[in-house]
Specification:
Strand order of the largest sheet: 1-2
Low-confidence stretches: 2-39, 368-418
Strand content: under 5%
Mean pLDDT: 82
Radius of gyration: 19 Å
Number of strands: 2
Helix content: 25-40%
Distance between the termini: 15 Å
């Protein structure tokens, strides 16, 4: 999933998801000019060295989730950085340079960063009050159709609704019971699924209806919507192996059928090149690494690891440099893809994704010195956090787009097909 505030990230669009030199916004670590406050904040616990203005909370949440899924106990300093970003009403913005300053009407809080933070803080454990407040805020800004848009009051979209569904299920909250005007999040999500009778994009999810109310297939929204329809979060495990997905219309499609339809669409989109593509106006198509990683996790969740074997192999061969240049959320997206397919993230095409992720921020608690870039790991001489909600949670029930759930610049809202 990619960063979803399209109005805020317009300036980044020219460099997003192009080749290996840039990344989907959520996976990006936009570097050029970090402010003094951003730099000092990074030193106090933030993963990634780039300016966090657009993606600080998102990339921090994905980094913590990825570490937890890989059996790493995150740095307490990194966790505190994230909790300090919360506003008094429970919401999160992409980044607050001065967490001591109260949020006000000018603070651009949103559903995506809030839902990602919920998933991360639930996974690491010990922050029930922060999670409860965030869930309360999310429920308070639910739309009449049962879904969520990126910002409170904006129309529901597949990516935002799906990342909130992930936050609900992660915290053992049944999305079916979270209703507004008699509508659940699943109702809003299924309303964005294209019927199989469509000539183009059959079975896909649209990000939102276009200005004429038409649904246009969007690969990124489809990966997110597939996981949302299954009630999965940013981190998921392989589902039961099934026959190849095919698109099948019914009068009242179930969530499972909508997920199978979406899987059929993604399988077709990936068939030719083994990866999804991203295009900017006037530029040739380029590999979309983040959304391909999201698609791998989604396909594995729906039909087993074998369903994602092709694009997974492509990522192992090609995505290392992209992640190195893009930052912690990119490493997290690849770790999520590895986790979903039962692949060792410490040997992903010859790259130790966990080590590389750890090296972008404060050393995890209990990690071996060889796993970090800074030497002795935090907490080697301290008691390890033994909260009941840690690594085991994602192993048991299981982004970042993400929401790639990597997050929206590449195709979201454009109505483009891969």
């Amino acid at each position: 999933m990619n960063v979803r505030r399209r109005s805020s990230v317009a300036a980044l669009a020219a460099t997003a998801v192009i080749g290996v030199a840039a990344a989907p916004a959520v996976a990006a670590d936009p570097s050029p000019s970090a402010t003094t406050s951003a730099t000092s904040t990074a030193a106090s616990g933030l993963y990634g060295s780039g300016d966090p203005q657009f993606d600080g909370v998102w990339r921090q949440s994905l980094a913590l989730l990825a570490q937890d899924s890989a059996g790493v106990v995150p740095s307490s300093k990194a966790v505190k950085w994230l909790t300090d970003q919360q506003c008094d009403d429970g919401s999160f913005a992409p980044f607050r340079a001065d967490p001591a300053k109260a949020c006000d009407a000018e603070t651009m809080v949103d559903t995506n960063n809030t839902a990602a933070a919920v998933q991360a803080l639930w996974a690491v454990g010990g922050h029930g009050d922060v999670v409860d407040d965030a869930l309360g805020w999310l429920k308070s800004v639910q739309n009449e159709d049962g879904g969520w848009g990126y910002s409170p009051g904006t129309p529901s979209d597949a990516n935002s609704t799906s990342v909130v569904i992930g936050a609900l299920t992660a915290t053992e909250t049944d999305p079916e019971g979270v209703e507004k005007n008699g509508k659940s999040p699943y109702d809003a999500l299924l309303a964005l699924a294209l019927p199989c009778a469509e000539d183009k994009g059959a079975g896909a999810f649209a990000f939102q209806p276009d200005k004429d109310g038409k649904l246009l297939a969007n690969a990124d929204a489809t990966a997110a919507g597939l996981l949302g329809a299954l009630g999965k979060g940013l981190v998921t495990e392989a589902g039961e192996k099934t026959d190849a997905a095919s698109c099948a219309d019914t009068d009242e499609p179930t969530r499972e059928q909508a997920a199978a339809n979406a899987a059929a669409y993604l399988t077709d989109a990936l068939a030719k090149d083994g990866h999804l593509k991203s295009a900017l106006g006037g530029s040739p198509d380029q590999p979309d690494y983040g959304n391909t990683a999201d698609a791998v996790a989604a396909l594995a969740a729906q039909g087993g690891a074998d369903r994602a074997a092709g694009p997974l192999a492509w990522l192992k061969k090609n995505a290392g440099q992209w992640a190195e240049e893009s930052g912690p959320a990119a490493y997290a997206q690849l770790i999520f893809a590895a986790h979903a397919t039962g692949t060792d993230p410490r040997d992903f095409g010859g790259t130790d994704l966990v080590e590389q992720l750890n090296a972008t921020g404060p050393a995890p608690q209990g990690a071996k010195a060889s796993d970090t870039a800074t030497g002795k790991a935090e907490g080697e001489d301290e008691k390890k956090d033994d909260s009941p909600f840690g690594v085991w949670w994602y192993v048991g029930v299981c982004l970042v787009f993400g929401i790639g759930i990597g997050f929206l610049i590449s195709n979201r809202g454009k109505g483009q097909q891969p």
